Amino acid sequence: MFYWLMKYVFIGPIVKAVFRPWIVGRRNVPASGAAIFASNHLSVSDSVFLPLMIDRPMSFLAKSDYFTGSGLKGWATRVFMKATGQIAIDRTGGKASEASLNTGLQVLGRGDLLGIYPEGTRSPDGKLYRGRTGLARMALEARVPVIPVVMVDTDAVMPIGRSIPRVGRVGMVIGEPLDFSRFQGMESDRYVLRSVTDEIMVALQRLGEQQYEDVYASSVKERAAQQQQQG
C-alpha cells in the first residue's frame, strides 16, 4: 500500500511532471511472472525512474548504506528508498554476496520483477563496463528471463556527487527478453556464468550504443582514487 501511494499519488506524479521521462519498448515488459531487468547504471536516480515507468511493481537491490544514515537526511533517504521498492543488501562480498543472491531469489520466487545493475556500481564516466556474474547465477537458479534496459541521460540530471537533481528529461529503452534456459542446471559452472553475463552486456551495449570497456567499473574508480591521492 505504501509503495502504491508513493508511486501513484505522492512521488510518482511529481517526478513525471518535472522530468517527463520517456520509455521505448514497454511491450517487452512481461504482463505476469518473474523476470530480471538488467540495466546500465549512470545515476542513483536510475532506481527511481525505471520502476516509475513500469506498471508492475519492481524491486531493486540497493547497497545497505542508503538505509543506515542518521539524522533527518538519513531518515528521508531510508523512507524514499523503501517507497521506491528498493531492498537493502550488503555488497562487501563473501557471505554478504550469498545473502544478496538469496534476497533476489526470494523476490523472483514470488513472481515479481527484480532490477539489477550488472556492472555492480555506477559508471564513473558514462561508459559501459564489465558485468558481474551474480546476475547470471540468479537468472539461472530462478529460471527467469533477463530483460536488458538502457537508461538515458540520468547522469545529466543527477551525476555522481550531486544530492539535488537538475531539471531535465530522461529516458529508458527496454530490450527484448533474453532466454538462458539452455544453461539450465549449470549455474555452478563459472565459465557458463561468464558467458551468460557477457551476452547480457553485449545486449546492453547494442541497445544503448555505449562505449564498452572490458574492465570492472569498481577497478576504474579505485585507480582514479589512487591517482588523486598520489597527485
TrEMBL record:
UniProt KW keywords: Acyltransferase, Transferase
Protein name (Swiss-Prot/TrEMBL): Lysophospholipid acyltransferase family protein
SMART domains the UniProt entry points to: PlsC (SM00563)
Superkingdom, natural source: Bacteria
Limits of the Phospholipid/glycerol acyltransferase domain: 35-154
GO molecular function, one term: acyltransferase activity
InterPro entries recorded: Plipid/glycerol_acylTrfase
